[in-house]
Amino acid sequence: MPINFKIRPEYKTIEKIDVLPVEFSQLENGVPVSVIRAGSQDVTKIDIEYPAGAVHAPFPLIASTTANLLQEGTAQKTSQQISEIIDFHGAYIHTQTAHHNTVVSLLCLTSHLPQMLELVHEIITLPTFPQHEFDIYLRKRYEEFAIEGEKVKTIASRLFSETIFGADHPYGRQLRHEHFDQIDLNRIKTFHEKYYKPELAKIYVAGQPGDNIIDLLNRFWGEKTDVPKMNYPSIPAPSPSPEKERIIKKENAMQSAIRIGRPLFNNHHSDFIPLQVLNTILGGHFGSRLMTSLREEKGLTYGISSFIMPLKYSGAWIISSEVTGSKREEAIETVFDEFRKLQNELISEKELTMVKNYMMGELLRNFDGPFSTADIYRNLKEYNLDFSFYRHMVNYLRDVTAFHIRELAQKYLNPEEFWVIVAGV
Questions:
Q1: pLDDT tens digits for 169-220?
Q2: Positive or negative CA dihedral for 44, 203, 103, 270?
Q3: Same fold for the domain at 23-221 and the one at 245-424?
Q4: Which sequence ranges form a coiled-coil region, renumbered to this chain (predicted)?
């Protein structure tokens, strides 16, 4: 039967998000384990999280270097042997360092979990941090740092964080040339010994791990050790620069990188979810106000985005774009014009409905499958939240009105409360 393309496909409004159930357990030493069982393939993803983030180190570079060198050799295996084992089993091991934690991730066939968990445990607990591998890594990292430091978008981003939070604030301090001279293997080994204790781990499992997954994890991470009480560094309130506009000239730059933003709160605040809607309208999707105005109507940029970045003890609202230097002032003023329109004019029902549907669709996409759901859950747990956070978001999306959006804009989109950072011409 031929398809009649004149008939639109039927659609319906999304009323709720169904999330996969989470099984909670503990290992023999008290390490928490969260398991999401789902998927049609016998594949498992395991994230092992340690409180080994950048804010715990004396200066930038230590935490990420420690994590990235874990696979470069152990007391029993060379880096080449580790790579060969991973390749032979078709597995994937990855480390990622954030402000407050480092996550070691394993993805493999469920049938290979015993061998791969043994390897991951060895990598985490018995790294030797060979001097040769350390030197190679540091040289490569410095080259990347130097190349990135020439880009106006990198200069603007680094200066923005420093300006919003304070140069000495854990969220604002930046990697500098002198840090490459200060770091050494003793600092790496001391950091590893302190923060990679088995009992400090949190484990997140997703996929089809089998019925014996807790026994298997106990074999490697259930060890009881004498871990002293940890005193993690306190995070002070941000201390933004009194300069509301900071411009860095860059010779031979083709464009100006612009960052416009302000300090904010994290996702525990009652206005966090409402601001997600306002931000999406402003610059959070391709058809947003800022994209329409600066790209489509005025041709000032190829792209501009706005996003809210929650942090464990703070947050920031950031608008990011690159424009021709001669159009810099016009671009900044156009952004603030969009602020004022949202403060003074009611959004149309058509636009608001479109944004609601877009956000609901993105939520559905983000919860598609056990691996992405587990990632969301792990991020929520960092803030002591659970999936009810997204149920509140769905409820707000269903009920929000144009009047709510205007009230939020009047409260949070005052141009004088935003900092402007420019790098380039």
A1: 999 999 999 999 999 999 999 999 999 998 999 999 999 999 999 999 999 9
A2: positive
A3: yes
A4: none
156/421 Cα distance (integer angstroms): 6
CATH superfamily for domain 23-221: Metalloenzyme, LuxS/M16 peptidase-like (3.30.830.10)
* Helix 402-412 × helix 272-283 angle, to 10°: 90
Tell me the two tokens of residue 321. Answer: 């774009």
Instruction: Tell me the C-alpha to C-alpha distance, in Å, between residue 41 and each of 45, 88, 167.
Output: 12, 19, 48
Strand duo 304-311 + 43-50: pairing: unpaired
Residue with tokens 């009480």: 229
Please name the residue ranges forming H helices in 126-151: 131-148
Total number of residues shown for the chain? 425
Question: Which of the four pLDDT bands, split at 50, 70 and 90, describes residue 13?
Answer: low
Q: Residue 379, Cβ neighbours under 10 Å: how many?
A: 13
Q: Which residues pair with 248 in a beta bridge?
A: 423
* β strands within 90-162, DSSP E: 92-97, 102-109
Q: What are phi and psi of 10, to 5 degrees?
A: -75, 140
Task: Give the containing element (helix H, strand E) for 116.
Answer: helix 113-125
Q: What is the pLDDT of residue 253?
A: 84
User: From the CB of residue 289, how many other CB atoms can be counted at a distance below 10 Å?
Assistant: 22
**Beta strand pairing call for 32-37 and 202-207:** parallel
Q: What's the mean pLDDT in 134-142?
A: 97
Would you call 79 exposed, middle or buried from its count of C-beta atoms within 10 A (0-12, 13-18, 19+)?
middle
Single-letter amino acid, residue 200: L
Can you tell me which residue has the tokens 């004149």? 6
Three-state DSSP class for 363?
Answer: helix
Supply 204's token pair: 């997140």
Asked if pLDDT for residue 5 goes beyond 80, the answer is: no
Query: For residue 34, what are the CA distances in angstroms to 108, 232, 336, 376?
Result: 18, 24, 44, 12
What residue type is assigned to position 11 of the chain? Y
Q: What is the pTM of this model?
A: 0.92
CATH number, domain 245-424:
3.30.830.10
Task: Show me where the domains of the chain are located.
Answer: 23-221, 245-424
Helix 402-412, helix 349-366: angle, nearest 10: 80
For 167-203, the DSSP string reads: TTSTTT----HHHHHH--HHHHHHHHHHH--GGG-EE
Q: Are residues 109 and 90 in contact, defined by beta-carbon separation less than 8 angstroms?
A: yes
Q: How many CB atoms lie within 10 A of CB 368?
A: 10
Q: In this predicted structure, what is the pLDDT of residue 88?
A: 97
